[in-house]
Specification:
Layout (H helix, E strand, L loop, with lengths): L16 E5 L11 H19 L3 E8 L4 H17 L14 H14 L8 H26 L6 E4 L6 H12 L3 E4 L2 E4 L10 E4 L7 H14 L4 E7 L5 H11 L7 E6 L2 E5 L2 E3 L11 H8 L1 H9 L7 E4 H5 L6 H21 L16 H11 L1 H11 L2 H21 L7 H24 L9
Parallel strand pairs: 1-2, 1-7, 2-3, 7-8, 9-11
Antiparallel strand pairs: 4-5, 5-6, 9-10
Helix pairs in contact: 1-9, 1-13, 2-3, 2-4, 3-4, 5-6, 6-7, 8-9, 11-14, 11-15, 12-14, 12-15, 13-14, 14-15
């Protein structure tokens, strides 16, 4: 009771810092629903680890080098010329999404046709940078609206070429890299990979793996006690090769933990929804937020373990009924706020020490027991990187409160008992707020 709004926060675990890297989508298009699941999970894991007493730093790795950035540049260049009335072909491997046209229109609204008559290589360079800046702005806007904050934005460009060359040289020196057919190969089969991997192509260009090795070397050099990455399930085969490289570089690869995010399937009226109504492509996260709201989107993403497939029921997420878990939890919180408004009108306050010993009924004892489970739930959720534990706990707490509310009158009973019950539901209120806050979900006072 005395802990107030800090109930649930565990003692500090010391100086070791955990780094959590998540989302890290290419800055070439809008964040989609799959990224949304990673954003909700990563930000909640950061919140839970902090509540459990750990020092945590969150990071977004910006893939702003390589082929996908060239494709973005060429796509925006083609749209720029087309929007100025020129009949130019669109690149075969270009990005066709409507968001590329939106980006180009924003560039034109700011800069007009001033790049139209530049030599092509010059125009490509300028448009590439403007498109990159625009995409990052849109991406950051969506993340902010989704209540996701990063401590560090790490640019892949800062690894090219020096840090990549340094990592490759160190691996060469320790015998972890060999040359074959003009390319450089990582001898990752020595450490459990199913085959060795190219890190520098025949043309001297580094592969994605080379940049990832340099990036993870940089992370270890920064001295984190633990590294957590949230990756899409399609990156499963990547773990062995990155861990192999870290071991060769002399780092403890067990400090690197990879959490996998399985697919999200959206359903409306029982039917699978695959495409955006507007763009005809993967459904953007902003479209989901517009349809169901940030609270429901975040809670529904967090209801299931990240390593299980998620069926997201859009109709349920929008419904204002007890069947919708996030609505049910928020309604319990709003009801407690309403009780306190009524208590104030009746002149009941929480001065002095509540007589908790007066509460002896089964409903009261159940609620008190449920409250005492919360710190242990945070500890377990942190150890397992499992936000779904908190999502389940706060739903169960709301359910236990509803049973208590049904069976126990709070106002209109003897004053000491009323005060004790008010003190109990004050703890419930703080706990619901705390848990929803860990999940990045709001706690409305009225509904």
């Amino acid at each position: 009771y005395d802990a107030g709004k800090n109930f649930g926060n565990l003692p500090n675990k010391g100086n070791v810092t955990i780094q959590v890297e998540y989302v890290s989508a290419n800055p070439t298009g809008l964040l989609h629903v799959g990224h949304g699941r990673g954003a909700a999970a990563g930000s909640s894991i950061v919140n839970i680890l902090r509540a459990a007493g750990y020092n945590v730093e969150s990071e977004y790795y910006i893939n702003d080098a390589g082929n996908q950035m060239d494709k973005l540049t060429k796509s925006v260049n083609a749209r720029y010329l087309q929007l100025h009335g020129q009949d130019v072909p669109f690149p075969e491997d270009g990005y066709l999404g409507a968001d590329i046209i939106d980006t180009t229109k924003r560039i034109i609204s700011k800069h007009g046709d001033k790049y139209l008559n530049l030599p092509e290589d010059e125009r490509l360079k300028i448009l590439g940078e403007l498109a990159y800046a625009d995409k990052m702005l849109e991406l950051q806007k969506d993340l902010e609206n989704f209540r996701v904050h990063f401590d560090i934005w790490f640019s892949e460009r800062t690894l090219h070429p020096d840090k990549i060359n340094a990592a490759i040289k160190t691996l060469k020196d320790c015998g972890g890299i060999y040359e074959q057919d003009g390319a450089l190969w990582l001898a990752s089969t020595k450490y459990g990979d199913d085959k060795d991997r190219v890190v520098i192509r025949e043309n001297g260009e580094p592969t994605y793996l080379a940049a990832d090795i340099a990036y993870h070397k940089n992370k270890f050099e920064r001295g984190f006690g633990e590294l957590i990455n949230l990756w899409g399930a399609d990156h499963h085969g990547y773990v062995a090769r990155v861990k192999a490289a870290m071991t060769m570089l002399g780092y403890d690869a067990d400090k690197l933990k990879i959490l996998f995010l399985q697919m999200v399937s959206l359903f409306r009226s029982g039917e699978a929804v695959k495409m955006s109504k507007r763009a005809g492509t993967a459904i953007p996260l902003r479209e989901l937020m517009e349809e169901v709201g940030t609270d429901a989107a975040r809670y529904f993403f967090l209801m299931r373990s990240t390593d299980s497939q998620l069926d997201f029921d859009l109709d349920l997420a929008k419904s204002q009924s007890a069947d919708n878990p996030v609505y049910y939890i928020q309604y319990a919180h709003a009801r407690i706020c309403s009780i306190f408004r009524q208590a104030k009108e009746a002149g009941l306050t929480l001065d002095g020490e509540p007589k908790f010993s007066m509460m002896t009924s089964a409903a009261e004892i159940d609620l008190i027991n449920k409250i005492f489970e919360y710190p242990a739930e945070i500890s377990k959720a942190a150890a397992e990187y499992a936000p779904q534990r908190i999502a389940r706990y706060v739903y169960d707490l709301a359910s236990t409160f509803s049973a208590f509310y049904r069976d126990c009158r709070i106002l209109g009973v003897e004053k000491d008992l009323a005060t004790a019950r008010l003190a109990l539901i004050k703890i419930i209120q703080h706990t619901i707020q705390h848990a929803l806050n860990l999940l990045g979900v709001s706690s409305p006072e009225r509904m």
